Amino acid sequence: MRAMLLEAPGRALRLVDLPVPKPNPEQLLIRVHACAVCRTDLHIVDGELAHPKLPLIPGHQIVGTVEAVGEKVKFFHPDRNSGESVPERLRVGVPWLGRTCNHCRYCLSGRENLCDRAEFTGYNLDGGYAEYAVADYRYCFEIPPGYPDVQAAPLLCGGLIGYRAYRMTGDAEKIGFYGFGSSAHILIQLARYQGRQIFAFTRSGDVKGQEFARQLGAVWSGSSEELPPEPLDAAIIFAPIGKLIPAALRAVAKGGVVVCAGIHMSDIPSFPYEILWEERILRSVANLTRRDGEEFLALAPKVPIRTQINLFPLSQANEALNALRNGEIEGSAVLFTQEDKQ
């Protein structure tokens, strides 16, 4: 199979030929059709997330079909018989959370996203920048019908972890999105469906990004250096920029919450206590749980959420990463391995 391989942080990925992986007893062998490109992939490639498996096939927003199953694999969908085998050619999605221990205090209390022994797709485990991938069947999701492969792929991280961050805002009516990329362009559709108002913040001078946000229904869009026209009930910081935290705290009203949605962020500058006071809350989101995935993928077709995609063939993964790094992607970047791009 063809795969894009990371051999050392800071180096470009290399297109290589590798043997097709063999699934272990609890894994699916998946023929990859599409894999969305995430900012976390950039953090791994650029060395900002330490200690990845090396060499590594990145990518954790995988959509493909089941080609083979391990002998212990049973169907994972809650609406099906738990003893029924996974049918081959089933279309599945593979997210960031690849495996947990299932017996620590975090796993046993519904917080498997915090498991100390968790392993992550495209970081500790080889991912989807390849023509085939293997994944633990218990952490895969069945893809809702009606979503082409390339449209579904961004839902598996931009959507899922964005949804977890969005849930942390509670019943907030006015929500600020700092950074309007893959996650924000997905979550604004859910917010509008639920009657919320979104205020979009982009880097200074990003007129195109601000217009994109307004097209998707933002009631206001502007620079992250500006205050919104009215106080916010909550804010989600999607951009990995620490200085946005004080900016967001200044933008939210008393009792408001600021949620940091990324896995990596630059250092947070010092800020006066007065902008945190009055019961404002600052919190982070780590990874996702399988419950997040089940809830979000059930909601997405009801909205319906539609992703805006920028397509790149697998061999151009480096170009896709550079475009994301340079702020040139409107919506989501997606790698495809099938010629029909379905």
Structure description:
β1 and β2 form a beta hairpin. The chain folds into two domains: 202 residues, Quinone Oxidoreductase, Chain A, domain 1; 116 residues, NAD(P)-binding Rossmann-like Domain (Rossmann fold, 3-Layer(aba) Sandwich), CATH 3.40.50.720. 49% of the residues are buried. α4 packs across α5 and α4 crosses α8. 21% of the residues lie in helices and 25% in strands.
Weakly predicted, low-confidence segments: 78-83
Just give the CATH class of the largest domain. Answer: Alpha Beta
Q: Structural class of the secondary elements?
A: alpha/beta
What's the average pLDDT? Answer: 93
How would a crystallographer describe the biggest sheet?
7 strands, mixed
- Total E-strand runs: 17
By CATH, the superfamily of the largest domain comes out as Medium-chain alcohol dehydrogenases, catalytic domain
The name CATH uses for the topology of the largest domain is: Quinone Oxidoreductase, Chain A, domain 1
Strand content: 25-35%
Report helical residue fraction.
10-25%
- Euclidean distance between termini CA atoms: 20 Å
